[in-house]
Every structure is written in C-alpha cells, then in structure tokens.
Amino acid sequence: MHVVRLLRVVLHLFAGLAISAFVYPLIGEAGRQAQIRRWSMKLVALCGVEVETRHAAGAQPAPRALIVANHISWLDIFVINSLQASRFVAKSDIRDWPLLGWLCEKAGTIFISRGRVRDVRRIYEGLVTSLHAGEHVAFFPEGTTGSQGSVLPFHANLFEAAIEAEVPVQPYALRYVDAQGRLHPAADFVGDMTFVQSMLTILKARGMKAELTILPIIETAPDSHRRELADAAHRVIESALSAGEKV
Description:
Domain Phospholipid/glycerol acyltransferase: 65-177
Strand content: 15-25%
GO biological process, one term: phosphatidic acid biosynthetic process
CATH topology: Cobalt-precorrin-4 Transmethylase, domain 1
Organism: Noviherbaspirillum cavernae
Number of domains: 1
Keywords: Acyltransferase, Lipid biosynthesis, Lipid metabolism, Membrane, Transferase, Transmembrane, Transmembrane helix
Pathway: Lipid metabolism
CATH architecture: 3-Layer(aba) Sandwich
C-alpha cells in the first residue's frame, strides 16, 4: 500500500513542478499563496498525516510576524504552509533534495549555508525586506531537526529581523503523535537518515497526526534584544510541548 502512496506523492510533486513553471508567472502574490496552501495540504494528506491546528489561550495568527517553530521533520514546512503560506529560511542542503528542493525554491524558500557570516547578513536583510512588504516569513531557530521530546537551543541572529522590521515574533509548537496521543517515532528526521528514507518511513506509518499549536505573539520594540526574543520563544514553545505530552 505504501508503494501506491509513494507513487501518488511523486505525481503530486510533478504537479507542483508544473504549477511553479506555468501557473506562478500568471498569478499574483495572493494567488501564489493560495496555491502553496492547497498544494501543501494535499502533500501532507497524501503522506497519511492529519493536521490539527490548536490555539493557546488568547493566541491568534498575527497578520504580520516573524514565525518561529521547533524543527522535527522536512514535513514541518508543509504543515505550517498548509495553515499559512510563508517564506521559509532553510539550510542549503534542502535545495539538493529530489524534486522537493526545487519546489521549495520556487515557493520562495531562502537557503542558508552553515558557518557563512556573509550568508547570514544577506538573508537577514532579505527577511527585513520581506517583512516590510507584508510577507509571512518563517524559520526554525534550532538550525537543524531534533528528536521529539526536546527542543534544542535557539540561534538568535535572525530574530533581529523582527526588531528592525517592527513586527512581533509568532511562535508555533509542533509535534507528531499517534492515535493514542503519544509522540510518533516515524516523524523524527535525525542523524544520517536521508530525505528518501524519511519519506518512506512516514508513508509506511499509520495514524500520524501533526499538532500545530499557535502561541501568543512576542512583542518587539526598538530596544529589544534578539537573544531575549530567542529565549522567550524557546520557553513558550518548550512549555507548550511539555504541556501537550501530559495530556
């Protein structure tokens, strides 16, 4: 059965290539975002993953914000895009993934190379420009995927973009669970696992649900410090995930 699901996913990827090449040039930004949302929702569904969006008390998606989330899997981008089409910052390795890397690039993903200070500066300036233009921008401040059950320390550099663009930080907490509400091991994309191996593991899995919790915004001010914003985002995301595990 998972072979049939894999074939459907591959066909959907090719459909995404066609949309990017022939439809994107003919539609505006609003139409492009709608296409990204619909395509992402279908990809996640084809992978057999249900998405449940939750709202913490008093939390609503901000119209303009720098979105940050914990990072578990390559699926994270598409789970978030199924709710809100966003321009992501992602490590440059993703560009080399079969089909999906090219699609991420066409969807506006900004690729960053590890350890290159000039790259960080270039991307930071691009984020500020995008936020000023009203685009939704998202990144994973852990800088890499981590096993579920823990949140790695957050890198603070790109939080500066929210301060300069005068927009709040919008934290999202993300986890993947089974039918009993336990963390689903098939979601973990860590170590030497390749993208293809991860996709096959997810396609073979059953009953996986992505729980995406929207958390209250963290306001910024001209005198805010990026480290303080990163620490605040880490605390609320880690707290939300810990609370979810106790349910």
